[in-house]
Amino acid sequence: MKQKAYVAGVGMTPFGNAMDKTLNELACASIKDALKDAGIAKEELNAAYMGNAAGAVITGQVCVPGQVALRSMGISKIPVINVENACATSATAFQQACTMVTLGVYDAVLVCGYEKLYHEDKNKTFSVFTGSIDVTQTDAITARLKARNEAIGQSLDMSGAGSSRSIFIDIYATWAREHMHQYGTTREQLAAVSAKNSMHGSLNPKSQFRNVITVDDVLAAREIVSPLTLPMCAPIGDGAAAVIVVSEKYANKIGKQRCIRVNASSLNSGWDAAEGELPMVSSAVAELYDQAGMGAEDISCVELHDASAISEIKYYEYLGLCESGAGGEFVASGASSLGGRVPVNTSGGLMRKGHPIGATGAAQIVELVMQLRGEAGPRQVSGARVALAENGGGYIGTDAAALVLSILSKE
Questions:
Q1: Does residue 371 surpass a pLDDT of 90?
Q2: I need a labelling partner for 190 at 20 to 30 A (CA). Which of 34, 164, 197, 228 fits?
């Protein structure tokens, strides 16, 4: 949807293992920082969209997680909308908040994504990811993945899926194998994504991992499912990120100098494309650029959902940053690195910044707002004026269950 909303403030906790903190503590820390950054009081908020995906499983908090978190910091009376939409949870919250502001329903809205995934019982954590597919179709999904591998002369052992690893690793490994088979993409190019994001993440004080790793380090690491090694896959994490979305009228009231324009933000659900029909991602990207009145050539920087190295490579292509099949060459050339043509995942991405499911989408917005303000420090993209966020989640049939795309700009 074409939007007319602004981001006035952002806040974020460090991502990582926060077993010593409660879900509420994480949420409140990011919200306080976002309100301070916006320069507004909590009493000025008209509504709150609270994004949490795994709290019911990990903490047992069901039904009213948003109200519980907000009440603990004295925010009440306003409408509170709890959002759960797989890895696209807080990106969905952001899209909905921007839409309500654009429609004139609210002037100042809180968006918060917050999550705890670390748990003594790893099976609880893995169950969150297993539940992000159609659990009544697990056998059918497994059969389809094995058939896709067999079609390119590969075998796929899924005996550890859901117990020693997320089932999504098997999905990503299949994507990687197909891309390598069809386009000649190499393991070195997959590793280049992880190495590049490690360099970016080393510059981000909120990142879960801040050590720099090389392509050789990535290739020598423990293999999860061939061809993916551990650094090619996003880790679990705990953390929170918050965004204050305001109307143009309210932005003028508080001063627009540091406000960032939301030009377009769309929410899409996947489908099984018929032969000759554009798949969900391609269709959604085309619509987003049309709504924003922009194209891939206008984008200064991107935060995208690099749940695996192949995910980032495929989305270079989906977003039009390079030609179909050229994603491996794109990253290997340095085009997506700081100083390159279109820096991607300057935050470190999911693979290095971390991936607390419910917080990921909002954290992408935090990074892009900092870039567009010129406040990203050593990872600043020179002259950044237009930024794109892509956040997908879940898997049904042959496609993502949810996809949120947003374009922001510096006015």
A1: yes
A2: 164
